[in-house]
Amino acid sequence: MSLLKATLQIFLFTGIALAASVPCKVDVSKMDGLSLHIERANRASHCQIKINSVLKPKITVISNSDLTFQDCLPEDVRITATRVIECSQLKDCPKTPVHLLLPALPPCLPAPLSSVTWSLRPPESGTVELTSPSGPLKQALPGQPCNNNIIIKEGDGTTVGRFCPKGTIDKVQIHNNVSVTVTLIVGRALTKSWEPVLDVRLKERISERYIFNVALKKDAGVLLASPGWPGGMKSYSTVSWIVTVPPKMEARLMFANLSQPKCSRRHTNIRVQRVGRAEEDYSRREDEEADSEITVSGNFYLNMSNCMPENGNFSVITEITLHKSKNFLLTIILSVVATLVVVFVIVLVAVCVVIRKKKKKLEHQVSIYNPNGTSFLPGQNGTPKTSEDDDNHEYASIEDTMVYTHLLRKGRELGVYGEFDTYQPDSQKPLVSKGEGDGEAQVGAYQPFVYPSQPGPPLPVRPLSHGKSLVDNGIYQSGDKKEEESSPKLGPQMEPERGN
């Protein structure tokens, strides 16, 4: 009896709780401009939703409102949020990135946020640029599960792709109106702790319809699906991937799941071109057989364009893997050679500087030419003396024999003199006698020797005195020093011719 009573009490308490209404005040000013949409997800439930005491099956909260939820379980209510970001002219667009943030919902709501959608509307012919502040994105493809699901669509609802964090896509640019939607992941609620989702900029027009910036990583490959995969690209649409390859690596591309349509106008095309090169590394149309694998070294563009399909769709998944470059050794050799060239240039410049400094120093020391064969540098020693200025030829006293010895030697060679004895001062007479028409010869003065017109009589042979001649000795001996100083002797006296 007591057990039945207790069970009845629990049932009555639960029924009262389910039947109770829960008031909830929602302040949208704290939701960063988002509008809140609440609707009944289960038509069979007894859930009632009221806004300002008015019962409605679906409400949109755009201002501060009082809500009431009666008999509502979490599975009975669906809550979504939207926000519109737009500008009519490029100059009116925000200059800084706009953060796509998840709103903080009040805890009185009966269910968590199931999805958030941002409608991005650039000016006419403008572009939406999306980046992830939490890291690069990757496409959600088979074999690549995502923890969070970001769906990017064009304004007409065409899906561009599904993306999630921890990938290699740094930037997405789309030349059209775009919507970005974050959906609820099973077993995980969308909360403010997952913010920000993306950063958005509204910019000028780009050359392609879609542009993806991809930065490859050494430790993993990447799968890149064409926009709209697996449904196919829009007619006449174009897409470019700007791929950055790490240093010392090369990229190998494989085109998997390639679907080529039958074109009624134009052609589909897949092109690969390295950055900074005018020529293409690879180009194939839908009517040409595609290569199973190509290798590209360095950063490159991967471009695709669609035709007007008559049958089928144009879609492809490109698998990119990284390998060590075969030209790595060549790069090392060229680097070493370049380093040696730089070192050589530095050494050459240093040598030139030193030579130039020495040359400038020598230009200040100008040498003077001396015809005697001696050059000198100006300095404290002054100009060197010439033979005329040299005082080495000056003597304190001069011996007559040293002065006139050359005359004696010359006369001997001509046969004028014979062997002569040592000079005798007592027999000294003038070398030249009076001549006709001439006055008295001045005694003691030097007179030049005049050779007779007719050869004279031979000179007497005089015996050598003391065994040495005046010339051999080179020494003039005088008995009277005073007489020598006052009247220099001119050599041996010539004896007049004696008669028979």
Sheet with the most strands, sense and barrel status: 9 strands, mixed
Low-confidence stretches: 1-19, 417-446, 449-456, 462-500
Shape: elongated
- Reported by name, the CATH topology of the domain at 84-324 is Jelly Rolls
What is the CATH architecture term of the domain at 84-324? Answer: Sandwich
Radius of gyration: 61 Å
Let me know the average pLDDT: 75
CATH class of the domain at 84-324: Mainly Beta
Strand line-up of the largest beta sheet: 8-16-10-14-17-19-25-22-23
User: What is the H level of CATH, i.e. the homologous superfamily of the domain at 84-324?
Assistant: Spermadhesin, CUB domain
Structural class estimated from helices and strands: alpha+beta
Number of strands: 27
Our count of helices gives 5
Separation of termini?
208 Å
- Share of helix, binned: 10-25%
Q: What portion of residues belong to β-strands? A: 25-35%
Any overview of this molecule?
By secondary structure, the chain is of the alpha+beta class. Among the domains are: 84-324, Jelly Rolls (Sandwich), CATH 2.60.120.290; 397-430 and 456-500, no CATH class. It contains five helices and 27 strands. The relative contact order is 0.07.
Short summary of the structure?
The protein is of the alpha+beta class. It has helices at residues 2-19, 328-363, 400-414, 470-473, 481-486; strands at 21-26, 35-40, 48-51, 54-55, 58-61, 65-70, 77-86, 98-100, 113-121, 127-131, 137-139, 149-154, 159-165, 169-174, 178-183, 198-203, 210-215, 222-225, 238-244, 249-259, 262-265, 269-274, 282-285, 294-297, 300-305, 308-311, 315-324. Among the domains are: 84-324, Jelly Rolls; 397-430 and 456-500, no CATH class.
